[in-house]
Write a structure and sequence with these properties.
Length: about 325
């Protein structure tokens, strides 16, 4: 595919205080297309200047309005399409990601060959998976199956016309906005696809348990809100994920507490279900650090349930939850 064909694609990058990660991100794109928009959400480093020095259009988000990545991407797209009304494709990418040199070529080629596919994504890898167990879990989480998919993540190439038709991301969501958009895209008869191509290098920069816990709480919130919006049959959006959290972090612990009152011996036996589950998951995965990852997967259900409670509490009180950030 020639460089001329990349005239059909524009890129929206979002970020805040990404430092050198943003530099790598922008450098990986400026040689591919000049149709770039960087959306900054209140950085106090030199992020805006870095983008401007590369002749990249910048959107400074109004931070008096509650921030969401969804709103940032939407505003970036608005400027991009205003500047280039006939743009066929838009690549969304987070500012802590470096885009693979061949990704845009391969992604556009796939969409050109598959006219019913609206969204295409590839392999997002963690830049430093060996630095922490949390980074490694991110890397494994992103290794989703090749082929038709239900959802994409924050890095994906989309048809601009479909993005406009669906009115973009739900700006009110603090997490899970990409899968929610994909639900609406699929309801219109379009497809989402994961291809076997390297897409981005991401820097999660998670080195502490507290970061991982907050990220898991945010996931639980996204699951609950996803069920609230699209949980009906046949989509059943994130219903299973919510049920698993309630089972492992809610009902089983409550039953154990009840048994402690009735018959402690039975409670101790039931508690063994947790180490058994950890062993089962570890033996299924057969990866380095599989037992450690299995432990965090089980423990993560408790964080996810906390996130669900946060959503339910705010729904009942009519309040809007603040962004749950782990960096």
């Amino acid at each position: 595919m020639s460089a001329m064909e990349l005239s059909d694609v524009g890129v929206v990058i979002i970020g805040r205080n990404e430092g050198l990660r943003l530099v790598k991100c922008l450098e990986s794109l400026v040689t591919k297309t000049k149709k770039l928009v960087y959306v900054d959400s209140g950085s106090n480093d030199n992020s805006v200047k870095v983008a401007q020095d590369m002749n990249i259009s910048v959107v400074n988000l109004d931070m008096t309005i509650p921030f969401t990545a969804a709103r940032a991407r939407n505003e970036g797209f608005e400027l991009l399409i205003k500047s280039f009304p006939d743009l066929k494709y838009v690549q969304f990418v987070d500012g802590d990601c470096e885009v693979n040199p061949t990704w845009l070529y391969q992604a556009i080629k796939f969409l050109e060959m598959n006219p019913r596919v609206a969204v295409v994504c590839g392999r997002r890898r963690e830049r430093y998976p060996g630095k922490s167990i949390y980074n490694l879990m991110c890397d494994i989480e992103w290794n989703t199956p090749i082929g038709e998919a239900k959802y994409c993540g924050g890095d994906a190439l989309m048809r601009s016309s479909i993005f406009k038709e669906t009115k973009g991301f739900n700006a009110g969501l603090i997490a899970g906005e990409e899968p929610e958009l994909c639900v609406r895209i699929r309801k219109l008869g379009w497809k989402v696809w994961r291809i076997d191509e390297e897409m981005t290098l991401h820097d999660a920069a998670m080195s502490r348990f507290a970061q991982w816990w907050k990220r898991s709480v945010r996931a639980g919130h996204a699951y609950a809100e996803g069920v609230y919006i699209h949980g009906e049959h046949p989509e059943n959006h994130w219903v299973k994920e919510c049920r698993r959290a309630w089972l492992w972090a809610g009902f089983i612990p409550l039953f154990i507490i009840l048994l402690l009152v009735i018959n402690p011996n039975y409670a101790y036996v039931l508690f063994l279900i947790y180490p058994i589950q950890i062993i089962r998951i570890a033996l299924q995965n057969k990866r380095p650090h599989s037992f450690k990852m299995a432990f965090f997967l089980v423990l993560g259900k408790f964080a996810e349930l906390v996130g669900q409670f946060k959503f339910l509490k705010n729904m009942m009180l009519g309040q809007k939850i603040k962004l749950i950030e782990y960096k």
